[in-house]
Design brief:
574 residues, alpha/beta, Beta-Lactamase, Rossmann fold, 4 domains, five-stranded antiparallel beta sheet, rod-shaped
C-alpha cells in the first residue's frame, strides 16, 4: 500500500513539472512579442507565482522521493527478511523474484533461482499439475487463491508448503503472480502426530471402553452371581431355620414323649392271635400303605404302630403321635396343622403342626374316632393330596407322611351314626390290623407278668423273682377291661407293695373260672368297682388329672386314658 501511494505522488509531481515547463515555454514565446509595461508587470507577477508553485512542487517532489526511498527500503527489508517465503512468478510459473526465506526454503542461492521453473521443485507429477492449475486460476479469476503442495529442496528435504497467490500488473501491464509460501512441514508433522495421537487416543479409548464394558458385564455377572449366592444363602438360612424349628419342635415332642413314657415297652406274646398280628406287621411295615389299628383301650396299639414304623424305610425319621382324645377340641386343628402368630387369641408364637414335624416320617393318629367331624375333611385332604395350610396362613404346605391310625371304637358304626366320614374311613381302612384284647390271649399273661416284673424291679430297685401259682391264676382268669395297660399298672403297684422276693397282688377283683359264666356280669362288677375307684381318687386330688400328684399318676394311667374312662363312666366334676 505504501509503494502504491509513492507511485501516485511521483506521477502528480511529474505532471506538475510538465505543466510548469509548458508555461515557461509559452511565456518565452510570448517574450518575443512586444509588451506593454502593465503586461510585462503582470507577466512577471505570474512568473513569480509559477516560480513559487514550481518550488513548492519541487519541495513536494523531494519529500515524495524521500518517502518513496524510505518506503522502498522498508519494503525491501520486509520482503527480504520476512519469515515467509515470497515468490514472484510469471504466468508460466517461472521464478522472477524470491526473497531470502524463499531461497533458504528451497536450499538455493537467489541468483540461481531466477527464471527457473518452480514446478521443478515439486517431485510429484500430480502436485505439479495442481500448482500449474493454481496459477491458471489465479490469472483467470484475479482473486487470492490457496493450495498445498510438497516441495523438494536441493538437498532433498521435503517441505510441506502452503501457497497463497494473487495476480498483480506492472507499469508495463505485464501480469505477475505477489505468492507467499509458508513452510508448514513442522506444523504438518505436528498435525499428523496430533492426528496419530488422536487416533491412538481414540483406539485406546475404544479399547478401554471395551475393557470397561467387559469389566462392567463381568461385574454385573458377579453382582448377579452374588445376588444368587445371597438368595441361595438366604434360602439355605430359611431352610436351616425351618429345620432348626422342626428339630426344636421334635425335641420338645420327644421330651414330652419321654416324660409321658409309654407303658408297653415292646410287644410281648406268643399266642396264635398275637402271632397273626406279628405277621401282619412284617407284611405291611416296608410299604407306605395307610394302616388302621383296631382294638380296645390298652391293647398296645401304640406299640404296634412303633413296630410298623421301626421296620419301615422311614425308621430313621421320627414317628409323631397325636392322641385325639387328649387334645382339647379347639386345639386339635392347630396341633395337627400348626399355626401362625396371632392366628387366634393366645397364639403368641408361630408353631409347626404335627404333620409338618412328621414330614418324610410317620404320624400316628391315636383314637381317630374322637376327631371332630369338622376336622375330618381336612385330614382327608392331607391323606389324599399331602397338603394343608397352617392356621392364619394362606400358604399351602406339602408333606410326605405315612399315616397309621388307631381307634377303640367301631368306626363302621360311627359312620352309620354320622359321626365319622365314610370317605375318611375308606381312606384309613387300607390295611386294618385288629389287636386282640388281653382276655383273648391269656396264655401270654405269664410272659407279660415276668416282663413287667423285670422292668419295675429295675426301676424301683426291688428283687421280685417269684409269682405264686394262685396269683398267676387270678391274673389269668381276670377279664382285663383295661387290657395290657391295666396289667402293667397292677404289677407296678404289686412290686411297690410286695415284701421279699414273691409278688404279692393286693388288688381284689372278680374273676370267672367257669367259661360258661357271662363275661358281661364280671365286666359290670369290675366296671362299678373301677368307677368308684376313679371317682374316689379324683376327689382326693381335687379333680386334678395330670401332673405329679394327679389322679392319672396315682391310678397308673395315662391322662388321656383316664379322660376316656371318665367319659365312659360318665364321671364329671360336680
Amino acid at each position: 500500500m505504501v509503494i502504491n501511494k509513492d507511485k501516485s505522488i511521483l506521477k502528480d509531481a511529474a505532471r506538475l513539472r510538465s505543466h510548469a515547463e509548458a508555461l515557461l515555454r509559452a511565456k518565452s514565446a510570448e517574450e518575443s512579442l512586444p509588451r506593454t509595461q502593465e503586461e510585462l508587470q503582470r507577466l512577471v507577477h505570474e512568473l513569480e507565482v509559477y516560480q513559487i508553485e514550481l518550488e513548492m512542487q519541487n519541495a513536494e517532489l523531494r519529500r515524495a522521493r524521500e518517502e518513496l526511498e524510505l518506503s522502498r527500503n522498508t519494503y525491501a527489508e520486509l520482503y527480504e527478511y520476512a519469515p515467509v517465503g515470497y515468490f514472484t512468478f510469471d504466468e508460466a510459473g517461472l521464478i522472477k523474484n524470491v526473497n531470502l526465506a524463499g531461497a533458504r526454503m528451497l536450499g538455493e542461492e537467489r541468483r540461481l533461482l531466477a527464471d527457473k521453473p518452480f514446478a521443478g521443485f515439486i517431485s510429484d507429477a500430480a502436485e505439479r499439475d495442481v500448482f500449474l492449475t493454481h496459477l491458471a486460476l489465479v490469472v483467470q479469476r484475479r482473486v487470492m487463491l490457496k493450495c498445498e503442495i510438497n516441495l523438494t529442496g536441493v538437498d532433498g528435504t521435503v517441505i510441506y508448503g502452503q501457497l497463497q497467490s494473487v495476480m498483480v500488473s506492472s507499469e508495463n501491464n505485464d501480469n505477475f503472480i505477489f505468492t507467499s509460501i509458508v513452510d508448514a512441514t513442522v506444523r504438518n508433522k505436528l498435525e499428523k502426530k496430533l492426528q496419530s495421537s488422536h487416533d491412538m487416543l481414540e483406539f485406546t479409548v475404544k479399547e478401554r471402553t471395551q475393557e470397561l464394558t467387559s469389566a462392567n458385564m463381568q461385574l454385573r455377572q458377579e453382582i448377579e452371581d452374588r445376588n444368587n449366592a445371597e438368595k441361595s444363602l438366604q434360602d439355605a438360612y430359611t431352610e436351616i431355620k425351618h429345620l432348626k424349628d422342626r428339630l426344636q419342635a421334635e425335641n420338645i415332642y420327644l421330651q414330652q414323649e419321654i416324660a409321658q413314657q409309654n407303658n408297653f415297652g415292646e410287644i410281648i406274646g406268643q399266642c396264635k392271635v398275637i402271632s397273626h398280628v406279628f405277621s401282619q406287621i412284617e407284611q405291611v411295615a416296608p410299604l407306605n400303605a395307610t394302616v388302621l389299628l383296631l382294638g380296645e383301650t390298652g391293647t398296645g396299639k401304640g406299640v404296634v404302630a412303633r413296630a410298623i414304623h421301626g421296620r419301615s424305610a422311614r425308621k430313621t425319621l421320627p414317628m409323631i403321635t397325636v392322641n385325639c382324645t387328649a387334645l382339647p377340641a379347639n386345639l386339635i386343628e392347630s396341633e395337627l396343622f400348626g399355626r401362625e402368630k396371632g392366628a387366634f387369641t393366645g397364639a403368641n408364637a408361630r408353631q409347626m403342626g404335627r404333620f409338618e414335624l412328621a414330614d418324610k416320617g410317620t404320624i400316628f393318629l391315636d383314637e381317630i374316632g374322637e376327631m371332630p367331624l369338622e376336622l375330618q375333611c381336612k385330614l382327608l385332604r392331607v391323606i389324599q393330596d399331602g397338603e394343608f395350610e397352617r392356621l392364619g396362613s394362606p400358604l399351602t404346605i406339602k408333606v410326605d407322611v405315612r399315616i397309621i391310625a388307631a381307634s377303640n371304637r367301631n368306626l363302621e358304626e360311627e359312620v352309620k351314626k354320622g359321626t365319622f366320614r365314610e370317605d375318611l374311613f375308606y381312606r384309613l381302612n387300607v390295611f386294618p390290623i385288629f389287636i386282640p384284647p388281653l382276655r383273648q390271649r391269656k396264655e401270654d399273661i405269664p410272659l407279660l407278668v415276668h416282663h413287667f416284673i423285670a422292668k419295675f424291679n429295675k426301676k424301683i430297685g426291688n428283687k421280685i423273682d417269684t409269682v405264686a401259682n394262685e396269683t398267676m391264676n387270678y391274673l389269668q382268669e381276670y377279664y382285663w377291661p383295661g387290657n395290657v395297660r391295666e396289667l402293667e399298672s397292677i404289677i407296678e403297684r404289686a412290686i411297690i407293695t410286695s415284701q421279699g422276693n414273691v409278688l404279692q397282688v393286693l388288688d381284689r377283683f372278680e374273676t370267672s373260672r367257669n367259661p360258661d359264666d357271662k363275661a358281661g356280669q364280671n365286666v359290670k362288677a369290675l366296671g362299678d368297682l373301677e368307677h368308684d375307684h376313679i371317682l374316689s381318687v379324683l376327689q382326693k386330688t381335687g379333680w386334678r388329672i395330670e401332673g405329679k400328684n394327679g389322679a392319672a399318676k396315682l391310678l397308673g394311667l395315662n391322662a388321656s386314658t383316664l379322660r376316656a374312662r371318665m367319659r365312659k363312666f360318665g364321671i364329671v366334676r360336680q
